[in-house]
């Protein structure tokens, strides 16, 4: 068999049949071996051709010819998930988030960065295979009801502004308001105003953070802040 176009390998057998190359960037190889075996059994048109620990490693090997990349959110990385997505999309690859993450904010940031859909590792391989095919057809896909809710249900998280998130991130790192204000080149009263607005947004949803530390806890629980 030979490669006829990027990510599609002609199968030895019926004329014109093709296999779509699927690669993965993940640090759980056992999970991926299981996915590879399941795809081979239930989705013979899809083949897991490479597993890598980073975008750089993937693009330096056979995975560079894959049509689709399954990208884990939670693994250690040098840059950001958004940077990874931008680089893969720039190489003409369809990027699908393949993760155990069940907080809405990180997966929505990934979609906004250019990922074509969300696949949860808990979902059946048949649903994952269907989603991969849909993404290849240009659709934005989800592998199940929970994945769809994480991307679309506005009740799952409070929308915070980038400035509010930046302030909460600094507070989570132990900086007092005065130091946050100095770092961000704003006044301390402006810091407090952003926090008050964030509290008001949560209270509109019937949630009371209580104070800035409660805000940090809620924002982290939704994925606005890293663990």
UniProtKB/TrEMBL annotation:
Keyword Phosphoprotein: yes
Superkingdom to which the source organism belongs: Bacteria
InterPro entries in alphabetical order: CheY-like_superfamily, NreC/VraR/RcsB-like_REC, Sig_transdc_resp-reg_C-effctor, Sig_transdc_resp-reg_receiver, Tscrpt_reg_LuxR_C, WalR-like
SUPFAM superfamilies per UniProt: C-terminal effector domain of the bipartite response regulators, CheY-like
Keywords: DNA-binding, Phosphoprotein
Domain Response regulatory: 21-136
GO terms for biological process, alphabetical: phosphorelay signal transduction system; regulation of DNA-templated transcription
CDD domains linked to this entry: LuxR_C_like (cd06170), REC_NarL-like (cd17535)
Keyword Phosphoprotein part of the UniProt annotation: yes
Alphabetical list of Pfam families matching this protein: GerE
PANTHER family given in the database record: TWO-COMPONENT RESPONSE REGULATOR
Protein name per its UniProtKB record: Response regulator transcription factor
Species classification: Bacteria, Bacillati, Actinomycetota, Actinomycetes, Propionibacteriales
């Amino acid at each position: 068999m030979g490669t006829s176009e990027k990510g599609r390998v002609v199968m030895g057998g019926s004329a014109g049949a093709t296999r779509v190359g699927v690669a993965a960037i993940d640090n759980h190889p056992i999970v991926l071996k299981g996915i590879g075996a399941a795809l081979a059994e239930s989705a013979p048109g899809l083949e897991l051709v490479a597993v890598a620990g980073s975008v750089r490693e993937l693009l330096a090997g056979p995975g560079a010819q894959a049509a689709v990349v399954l990208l884990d959110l939670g693994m250690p990385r040098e840059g950001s998930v958004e940077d990874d997505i931008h680089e893969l999309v720039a190489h003409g690859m369809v990027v699908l988030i393949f993760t155990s993450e069940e907080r809405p904010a990180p997966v929505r940031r990934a979609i906004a960065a250019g990922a074509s859909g969300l696949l949860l590792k808990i979902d059946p391989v048949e649903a994952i295979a269907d989603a991969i095919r849909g993404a290849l057809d240009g659709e934005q896909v989800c592998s199940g009801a929970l994945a769809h809710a994480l991307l679309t249900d506005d009740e799952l998280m409070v929308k915070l502004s980038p400035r509010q998130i930046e302030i909460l991130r600094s507070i989570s790192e132990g900086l007092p308001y005065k130091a946050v204000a100095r770092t961000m080149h704003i006044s301390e009263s402006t810091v407090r105003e952003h926090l008050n607005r964030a509290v008001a947004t949560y209270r509109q949803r019937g949630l009371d953070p209580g104070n800035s530390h409660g805000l940090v806890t809620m924002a982290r629980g939704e994925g606005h802040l890293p663990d």
